[in-house]
Write a structure and sequence with these properties.
The chain is built from two helices and no strands. It has 50 residues and is mainly α.
Length: 50
């Protein structure tokens, strides 16, 4: 379960990089949201909930 979660998070982090012309206008919002999700998952992991 943890390995699958790490793989999905890596794919999502790569996916939010503003590399395409239409996504450059979005700024840092998508990666900021993913960062918050990663932070919450890290806290849950350290607390032993995952």
């Amino acid at each position: 379960m943890t390995t699958v979660l790490v793989i999905v998070l890596i794919l999502v982090l790569v996916g939010v990089i503003p590399a395409w012309p239409h996504s450059r206008e979005w700024g840092y919002m998508p990666s900021g949201i993913v960062g918050i999700i990663v932070l919450v998952l890290l806290v849950l992991f350290l607390a032993g909930r995952i």
